[in-house]
Design goal:
The chain is mainly alpha-helical. The chain has nine helices and six strands. Helices cover 49% and strands 6% of the residues. The longest helix has 22 residues.
Length: 233
């Protein structure tokens, strides 16, 4: 039912039952040859009419959300009293690479930029990892996974791609693409950083919870370098 409701929101150009292979199989050169197709597809998702859906956050089964504001959504993701897997998750500060200092360094960078994302009310796939995008090698054929979809700033979907494969230089290519296509994204740098820090510390928390130290080290390095990288664009 959730997938059906999402399909009704999406433009006809976005498919949720695509044919092809996972984009993770593309080489770096292969991706760069068709990166415009990826960007075009994410912009198409953001064109969905969601004016009738109030609030922010991941969708419930009926496509309602839990949060009135973007700030509520982002901040509550990291609350200590979260039910389920993340209940009392901050106990990890004492036992994993996700230390209190590391978490709050990046959390504060996210938090001070939320104001730039407030009011940016778009449909997001929120699972734009390359293993979740289907391509035929020439174009993106669709996005089969909408389990984490919801309402947020559409730059979240680009930030996930970059976190997945930072050597693809997604924001650098995106800035160039927008100039070529005449697309203006107000407060791009601040909004992008907010979404990237949000998803980055969320994913870092997951890898820390399963003691994946190699991934934690990579993500921390990525987040440390992110602000200089984006502000130089």
């Amino acid at each position: 039912n959730k997938d059906r409701l999402i399909q009704e929101l999406l433009p006809e150009t976005v498919c949720i039952t695509p044919e092809g292979f996972v984009a993770d199989k593309l080489g770096t050169d292969d991706f760069k040859k068709i990166h415009q197709e990826f960007f075009k597809s994410i912009f198409e998702i953001s064109k969905a009419n969601v004016d009738h859906i109030l609030g922010y956050g991941e969708f419930k089964e009926d496509l309602t959300t839990n949060y009135q504001t973007c700030r509520d959504f982002l901040n509550d993701t990291f609350t200590q009293e979260k039910e389920g897997y993340w209940y009392n998750w901050q106990d990890m500060f004492e036992t994993t690479m996700m230390t209190k200092d590391i978490f709050y360094k990046f959390y504060e960078r996210m938090e001070k930029r939320i104001k730039y994302c407030e009011g940016k009310h778009y449909l997001v796939n929120n699972s734009t990892w390359f293993e979740s995008i289907i391509t035929d090698g020439n174009k993106v054929t669709g996005f089969p996974d909408w389990s984490r979809s919801g309402i947020c700033d559409f730059l979240l979907d680009f930030a996930i791609m970059d976190l997945n494969k930072p050597y693809y230089q997604i924001p650098e290519l995106l800035v160039k693409y927008c100039k070529e296509e005449g697309i203006v994204i107000p407060d791009f740098k601040e909004r992008y950083l907010c979404m990237a820090y949000y998803k980055g510390i969320d994913v870092l928390r997951w890898h820390a919870s399963i003691d994946d130290t190699e991934s934690c080290t990579t993500i921390i390095k990525y987040l440390d370098e992110l602000e200089d990288r984006i502000m130089s664009l």
